[in-house]
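Figure-free illustration: sequence to structure, shown twice.
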Amino acid sequence: MATSHRPRRRLALLFAGLATGCLAALAGGLIYGYHRANDPDILEAVVIGGVIAGFVISGLITWVWLLIDENIARRAQRLTGLIRAGTHSQITQFPHAAPNPYLGDLETAATELAHAYLDTRTILQRTVERETEQLALEKTRLERLLGDVPVGVMICSAEHQLVFYNGHVMSLLGGLETGISPGLNRPVSDYLYTSSIEHAYERLLRTQDPEAASDILCATVEEGRVLAARMRLLDETPGSETDGRQRLPGYILTIRDVTGDLATHSIRANTDRPGDWPLSMIRSSDLAATLQATLRSKGLLIAIDSTELILRCDGFQIIAVLSLLVQRLPSPAEQIKLVITPEEAGAKLQVEWQGKPLEQHDLDTLSGQPVDVGLANMTVKGILSIHGAYWLANSHAARPQVNLFLREARLAQRRPPSIPRTVVYDFGLLSKAGNAEVSATQLDELTYVVFDTETTGLNAEQDDIVQIAAVRIVNGRRIQNEVFDTLVNPGRTIPAASTKVHGITDAMVANAPDISTAVQRFHKFSRNAVLVAHNAPFDMGFLKKYEAQTGCRFSNPILDTVLLSAVLFGERESHSLDALAHRLSITISEEARHTAIGDATATADAILKIIPALKARNLNTFGDVLKEVRTHRRLLQDLNG
């Protein structure tokens, strides 16, 4: 606290210097007058008057110094100490300052600022405590939910170490009955044969698609129980970068016991129902690349020429068969090549090489060879039977070849955009009472559907909708996964002028749902919600146009962000969506502007920022807002009756 006294010390020194200067000036004047005056009586009176003046000046300066020190310096020191204590200590009360004419409103303003800081800190602490408690509660609920899921869930690191498992995993892996209960930070290989798991993990890494999944079969170490599993890479791994090096992601396995199913299928292996065996869909390029890597590790090279197909097969098993075939080719076999092409409803996997041919009886012998695919007593013949596949040797072609035919395949299409697969939840809804009257409901307790339409023109009577998009807001937050976005076939040509605005062409809507289907779907999506739009009369005019045709009546309460903007910022301001977004620090990219989903998302972000501002004006319920909005009805039509 030593530094807090320095201003007062400096102030005292300043007044001491002022007093010294005044006395020095007075003394100098007296000395000068003494030497110039010739009358001794006058000299004595001047000296006495000078001494008295010196005392008066010193007294006045001392009085002013004490006044300033008491009313300004000391108060500033006290205020500084209180602010510092409030900032760095855990005090919860800040004394109010008495009125001080010397500091004016400065001390009062500083006190108010300190009170606001303490209130904010208290609210923040309570919010953190409440949210921490809520997170703990939701964590417990999610753990219970995962524990009750009727499939096993395992999360593993990139090093195949177990980092999470639910209760069902224990029974699948043997449980306490055999003493094989799983343990965290233990290798998965302690419980499962990992050859197919490692293969699937490497394949998913090569796809570089965060939404890709791989269906596999694996077996338990202890009992040989066969499990069907689906693997998906984790989107984010904590500490994904260490010392500048990118870490590989972990993965999640959802597993179920299919031992009984496979026993049944193995009995049917020689019947005409091989398609009953659980198989997955795999890209031919993924299968070919994995085979290439597998053979390279064995010192063998193979070229690939593959049409991009989706093969219905167990990739691991087919790769094991092809790998065994290549290793058993007559020596010396050179220029080995795998060619994958469509074949009727299936696919042909053709292995060709330069060298001695392989005869059909050699293939028959090879069919009886065991193959290590994590299943007991599995042979090449068994794998081919599982897939309803067969292979033929062709020694009469220009180059010797073996053709393996799969029953099911299709041409691959471009990967669709990723669909969010996160769990959507809001446990706060469990304790939320139903609202019988919307007008009395708090704004942040309402469910909103924020929507936008793109049309062939601006006249609802003559033009039609070409796109509808909407997002949902529940409990004061936008639900990322709950999105409605569809193109609409208007049954007419889209004018070029409209296409320049929203970019939607006739070709884009050729296979889109018709207006009746789209409106009915949107009506279902928006049920029991408050509709929100920017310039709502325009969009609602189009929706109400189709009410008779679709049988869907849009009787929802409606909020218009144009009117809400007028309530907050005044009617004289611009209330375009761009202007509103700018005022609320919302960014709308050029690509998203004038697309239905882009404008709907921006409007949703706007309403989330508008609601706290409305509540600050004591507009807490939908009814409060409706009354205020109706004072601005001259801007737009009021759609709430």
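We now fold a second protein in the same way, so the two outputs can be compared directly.
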Amino acid sequence: MPRKTTPRRRTALAATAAAPLLLGLWAAGPAGAHGAPTDPVSRVYACSPEGGAAARSAACRAAVAANGGTPFTAWDNLRVADVGGRDRRVIPDGELCSGGLAAYRGLDLARTDWPSTRLTPGTTVTLRYASTIPHTGTFRLYLTEPGYDPSRPLTWSDLPERPLAEVKDPPLTDGAYRIPVRLPADRTGRHVLYTVWQNSSTPDTYYSCSDVVLAGGAQTRPKPSQAAPATGPKPSGTTPAGATPTGTTPASTTPAGTTPASTPPAGTAPAPTAVVGAARTAADTGGASFAPGAPLLAGGAAAALLLTGGAALAVRLRRR
């Protein structure tokens, strides 16, 4: 004999059916998103779907192809757990830019045309590290040694034993950490600024490669798209702050609506309203801009709609 379906049972069935959908939305939130350098622009950030013209560069297209066509949507999630400072033992040579993660292997391609930022040797610059979820931890910045060959895979022997800069628990200001670093005066041409962020609030360590061209390096520059106002970093997809896609903007040149990659004069602080390089990169990459928490807001709105719909369904079923 068929079992009679009561209003209470119908309500329970409706809630059960909606639960997997809600769980899927919650899982898709930015809980696994944290950060990456945006100025000088990192490879993962430049090649993300929000990278504007940089994402359309030959290097980024090749990186996505090496990933099997999967874009670098999670630009802020290149992390490895339980490294504990053993970077040189855990991350293999030739896989420094991907952290040894298959999902980011395209970033390890040895190329001389990665989107890059032009810097001046012997000066102090400020690396801006956009963070979508704040953490405590230590940043270590390395610059490839003299004689580095960008046409060969990056290895630990290309980096000095001691970092150029090491900063513990910097403040998060306007969605970014700012790390000052003094560049050596003996480097010219194309190099890699390698950033390691070892969290103390989580077991994770983040790795990233920012390609830079120091005065005297040859480079090409794509035609810039019309700029749009930049706002602030958003999880898993933002405009590279301070990048110059497939080429660079000289530090001494400041196009309209842009910001140079050099450090502010002594006694002044970085602009507190946005990641400084965002405006410059927007001019170069088609005007994509930061929008904090967009995926979270979208997921929350969708979850709210589903919850509302589920409640309405439950009420209707209860009245039958």
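Summary for the second example: The two ends are 22 Å apart (CA to CA).
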